[in-house]
Design a protein that fits this description.
Chain A is of the alpha/beta class and 441 residues long. The first copy, chain A, has a domain at 171-418: Enolase-like C-terminal domain (TIM Barrel). Chain A has 18 helices and 12 strands. In chain A, strands 4, 5, 6, 7, 8, 9, 10, 11 and 12 form a 9-stranded mixed β-sheet that branches. In chain A, strands 1-2-3 form a 3-stranded antiparallel β-sheet. In chain A, helix 4 packs antiparallel against helix 5 and helix 7 (142-148) packs antiparallel against helix 8 (160-171). Chains A and B meet through helix 1, helix 5, helix 13 and helix 14 of A and helix 1, helix 5, helix 13 and helix 14 of B. Chains A, B: This is L-fuconate dehydratase. Chains A, B: Residues 409-441 are annotated as: Disordered. Chains A, B: Its cofactor is Mg(2+).
Chain lengths: 441, 441
């Protein structure tokens, strides 16, 4: 008998990170990093489970969990092999469900829910294959990879034939690049020094530590106070020395005009990129800012809702670095589409990470990009934040500023059961101690 | 003692419209029109309640309800007068909550939930004022109206001062326009004839009925089959005669290239506009299609997620008609912003309606636009679909193809309690008879 999916279980897991101002920026002063977590179980004797999650920053994580639960009837009862053998088809079914798509379409809570479930399916597929996800993806033929992608709304920028040609171009060097990754890892940059809530002394200390740890790029949050930003940029530059790249991140703080003024004021400190200067929905705004602050590069993507918006950012030349997130667009499949778009337009992908578990996930996508899509690590770095990795069964491993290639089968998405219990919201023991403040005074 | 909000209750109400193929189009073959419904209650002796809802088409309505429930702590316990006297402030608090905004930002399920609650607040405010909403809005000064709008991410296209100037320009003629509206109503167009699921005979009969009822514009759904679309356009043109405007609506069916080809093939039938040719997220795609199918006008908006995307459509000249929806962007306040943007760019607003209750809501916004913002009814029409009005306490009234101006206090958003009970999902009596089919085979 072929095995079937027997359950899709969700849980609301929240970490009280706001207590330490970890993760504070101009738009998110007090995040409680959270996961709307999903476990897919089958009746297969192998006992493997698929784990995935949507990342949120606290309030609303229960809404995200409810959205994941709404996908239960799409999987439970179906044959595992049918679904895992055609994850392109499964993706289309979930994303284009004619009733659910009204809740987006392809954006926000429902799309992130699909992300969690799609990623859990990939985790399961990789565990069953006995491979880390990046290796599983790197073992797929160009034709199979193109079959994962939904080209709806993309064909004015990228056709299936063009995608196939891009992938075939890189097919030859895959083994050599896999070997390089397994030997040297993938470059990371450090965001931990630069949260807005930290004191100048803590900023200075963390900058020095990042350099000592081998990072060649750090990032500072900006956008709350220009004088403070200039002071913090100066401190960071002094602490890091002249050779370290210092990126800045405004977390959507500005309108177009104020963005240009603020960035121009910080230009003397030579920011490596300026990230999320304005609304992630404003492709024209990003293009206008890019044009007016050149040669300072603009980066964005962690809040970009789907491949259609990424397509437009690329069509306009609005970004010089494209930042994918593993859990906002609809999972692995849509990120493959976005990696292909970036390759077509020649824009380096520098993934967003941090939060809880985002580093664990996105490292697989960056490494797959290197092996099979862009074929390059030039000017490419994965964000690294040293938070909450201890809650994962297969946590990221960082050595001298680089992500080591994951070796365990799966998507590195499995959170320790004891962490899921301890940080369960609102009934877990940790939340019995933390009183949740009301959202209004 | 000043009164406070004492409860925010949600309910999941679904109508089994898919049984009759009402509402079927190229992307939504079998919608069950649904409302994630919210009732705000206070301890005021006036006994007024604020009613609002997010509209969905079936599956996922429970997710939408959960999102509305997540807003409960933002209102319950607060003083009613404080909130209702500063609905601009209340809007900002809900939309910019630093944790909830991660779930969007400003899009999808969470934004639609805010829409439902913001609209319920306006319903309550209008009931307390003893005015239909459109009259309440029309009684506000230009300064008060500008105070409702969040200009974040808009100032490269529209500043508060420009908005104020636009509103002051129309302030003089308000009384005369109110009198015209109360006498003659506001033009409507009829979508009921054109659903894809209907037979040719039914299409012909409904076209004739629409003309006999006084409508001067109808709309056909297209995009599933080109030959069938040409045949249906021919039937509609014959049945309506040469003087009736026939708009077409593709419901996001096409990529850019195929959109241009399909619309070009339908051009001989002189469509009045082509609606939603592609993804609502693709502002560049809309601009490209507009350019290539000119002079056929492009319309969009029912799925446009927020004011930032509307801004870009207008900046690019990508649409000739802008279609607001009362319950997708974050309620009245954001629609005031969008009406102001449209006025700035000189683009007529022709609201989306239909579904359940959308006609009831959006008529107020179109009438407010006429009285206080655009000052014009030229080439402006509100969509009208003759479904489910019987479930509302203050249903729309249509005479000779025009919406009569609502007279009852409030936002016309109150659904009859017996309808909410009967169609409650999944436990109401109607759903005890209809078995819900599984979403997959």
């Amino acid at each position: 008998m072929s095995s079937r999916f027997v359950s899709l279980d969700t849980s609301d897991v929240r970490f009280p990170t706001s207590a330490e101002l970890d993760g504070s920026d101009a738009m998110n002063p007090d995040p409680d990093y959270s996961a709307a977590y999903v476990v897919l179980r089958t009746d297969d004797v192998d006992g493997h489970e698929g784990h995935g999650f949507a990342f949120t920053i606290g309030r609303g994580n229960e809404v995200q969990s409810a959205a994941i639960a709404a996908l239960r009837p799409y999987l439970v009862g179906r044959q595992v092999k049918d679904v895992l053998d055609d994850l392109g088809g499964a993706w289309r079914e979930l994303v284009h469900d004619s009733q659910l798509r009204w809740l987006g379409p392809e954006k926000g809570v429902m799309h992130m829910a699909i992300s969690a479930v799609v990623n859990a399916l990939w985790d399961l597929k990789a565990k069953r294959a006995g491979l880390p996800l990046w290796r599983l993806l790197a073992s797929m033929s160009p034709e199979e990879l193109v079959g994962l992608v939904d080209f709806r709304y993309l064909t004015d920028a990228l056709t299936p034939d063009e995608a196939l040609a891009l992938l075939r171009q890189q097919a030859g060097g895959r083994d050599e690049r896999i070997a390089r990754l397994e030997k040297n890892g993938y470059p990371a940059y450090a965001t931990s020094p630069g949260w807005l809530g930290y004191s100048d002394d803590k900023l200075r200390r963390l900058c020095r530590e990042a350099v000592a740890d081998g990072f060649t790029q750090i990032k500072l949050k900006v956008g709350a106070d220009l004088d403070a930003d200039m002071r913090r940029m100066r401190i960071a530059r002094e602490a890091c020395g002249p050779d370290i790249r210092i990126a800045i991140d405004a977390n959507q703080r500005w309108d177009v005009g104020p963005a240009v003024d603020w960035i121009t004021a910080l230009a003397p400190f030579e920011p490596w990129w300026v990230e999320e200067p304005t609304s992630p929905d404003d492709v024209l705004g990003h293009a206008e800012i890019s044009r007016r602050v050149a040669p300072i590069p603009v980066a964005t993507g962690e809040h970009v809702q789907n491949r259609v918006v990424f397509k437009q950012l690329l069509q306009l030349g609005a970004v010089s670095f494209l930042q994918i997130d593993a859990a906002r667009v609809a999972g692995v499949n849509e990120n493959v589409a976005i990696l292909l778009l970036a390759a077509k337009f020649g824009v380096p992908v520098c993934p967003h990470a941090g939060g809880v578990g985002l580093c664990e996930l996105v490292q697989h996508l960056a490494m797959f990009d290197f092996v099979a899509v862009s074929g390059s690590m030039d000017d490419r770095v994965i964000e690294y934040v040293d938070h909450l990795h201890e809650h994962f069964v297969d946590p990221v491993r960082i050595r001298t500023g680089r992500y080591l290639a994951p070796q365990a089968p799966g998507f590195s998405s499995t959170m320790r059961p004891e962490s899921r219990t301890r940080f369960a919201y609102p009934d877990g023991p940790v939340w019995q101690q933390h009183r949740t403040p009301p959202p209004h005074p």
